[in-house]
Amino acid sequence: MTLAQLRYFLAIVRAGSMSAAAELVHVAQPALSQQIRQLEGELGQALFRRHARGIRLTDAGLRFQERAFGILRQVDALRDEFISTRAEPVGQVTLGMATAVNTAFLLPICLAVRQRHPGITLRLVESMSGFLMEWAEQGRVDLALAYEAASAPGLDAQRLGRESLFLIAAPDWRAPVKRRLGLADLARIPMVLPGFPHSLRILLDRSFAQRGLRLNVTAEVDSTLGMKQLVAAGVGCSILSRHSVAEEAGRGELAALPIARPGVSRSIDLLTGVQRRSDPAVQAVRAVVEEVVRAGLAPQEG
């Protein structure tokens, strides 16, 4: 098995056919087909199922795809680490971001990396905080911005700050009382929230339970966009960060109302996988992320 065979295999997966993959990697199609046959012969299993409209991965091919991608990513990272310098880092860095973090910080992080480090290609992945922690431990992402992240043996975790959460409501929603609402008031309001084990739901359940309260959840939606749409339609209210609804609030579609003290806040943590923490490119992106997020977490009313 060779690295070239792994690259050919992934090229076929991306292109969807042998002929398209041959053009992608600049190899004659018969030579490419021969390399794949040799690879399948060595593995003793078929990786592709061929049909009239192209090819499809077998179950073995699906497993092989994940491992091949991981191996090539490590090989490319090793090369980049040795040709990089701290003055001019190069290579690809994969940054995972929780959805709400993505909304607030994706653009300034991308622009800063592009301006300061033109030799770095930034690959962005969006997911739930729990998945991001796992991926950082496994080396699938080099860095991750996650909420309420716990330390783990395969991770370097750094707390960048905390953000206050707000009651999100439709603009014509009338609060049950005129004063600023506290958690006891929120417990009586129908809520649209993500389901367990979403990190936001875990945080809210814990915060309310500590005060002997229970959330009144009328709909569970594991999508920030979906929650905002249901709130705007009057199904219920939600609890999110202010920047999660900045665009909708600017258009008058949603309102972000501060919660009376002690309120609810959550930490934003920067996770670094141990596999590439010494890589100059990863360190450069980490410094940018740290700077941008800390600057964006100005004191908030909450």
Automatic annotation (TrEMBL):
Q: Which UniProt keywords apply?
A: Activator, DNA-binding, Transcription, Transcription regulation
One Gene Ontology term of the biological-process aspect is: regulation of DNA-templated transcription initiation
Q: Which residues form the HTH lysR-type domain?
A: 1-58
- Annotated PROSITE patterns: HTH_LYSR
Q: Which residues form the signal peptide?
A: none
Q: Name one GO molecular function term.
A: DNA binding
Q: Which family does it belong to?
A: Belongs to the LysR transcriptional regulatory family.
Q: What is this protein called?
A: COG0583: Transcriptional regulator
